[in-house]
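Q: How do we represent a protein-ligand complex in a form that can be generated token by token?
A: Start from the inputs.
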Amino acid sequence: MFPAIIAGTIVALAACAALLVIGYTIRFGTGPLPSSSRAQKEMIALAASLDINGDIVELGAGWGTLAFPLAKGFPHIRVTAVEISPVPFLFLQLRALVQKRANLEIVRRDILSVSLARAGLVTCYLYPDAMKKLKPKFENELQPGTVVVSNTFAVPGWEPSRVGELEDLYRTRIYEYRFSPPS
Ligand SMILES: C[S@@+](CC[C@H](N)C(=O)[O-])C[C@H]1O[C@@H](n2cnc3c(N)ncnc32)[C@H](O)[C@@H]1O
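Then emit the structure tokens for the protein with S-adenosylmethionine bound:
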């Protein structure tokens, strides 16, 4: 009797979680698909090569594939992981209980509502329409010299300072931009 109730509860919770993930994926245009390990390594290596002047902001943190290694790699820099979808957000919170990172802040917010004024590095793996929406926000809020690193999706109309191409099936591109205000 009790095992059946427990099993039923677990199945119901898993179904609710799956429905929530699907609902937020439809609403926000992308699901919590993590960066591949190659993309992750490339982005972390790229970050390590920079002189980061400000906070690190991970826009759409998913399961923390980038946020946790960034927080570990840069213990003296505040890393803000922004995630709107409740299931990945809860996972991030639980992960933070296990992998404690004093400099990691996890916020449940829309990426368009967080201030980027103190960012020295912005990372993301989103989708084309999000990059289109972020462009004016970047141009209004970023400080000159802030670096934006985007997995796969370019900031429309911006000239990248560097484009890395991964040796994977999709020749995934990692775009790096050094922000300078449009003249
Ligand atoms: C493709 S995943 C990338 C996860 C992680 N950055 C990585 O590289 O592994 C994109 C994440 O962005 C989140 N997301 C999409 N739109 C968002 C929005 N407007 N505000 C906050 N998070 C958003 C999704 O819920 C998803 O978890």
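The mean pLDDT is 96. The first strand starts at residue 55 and ends at 59.
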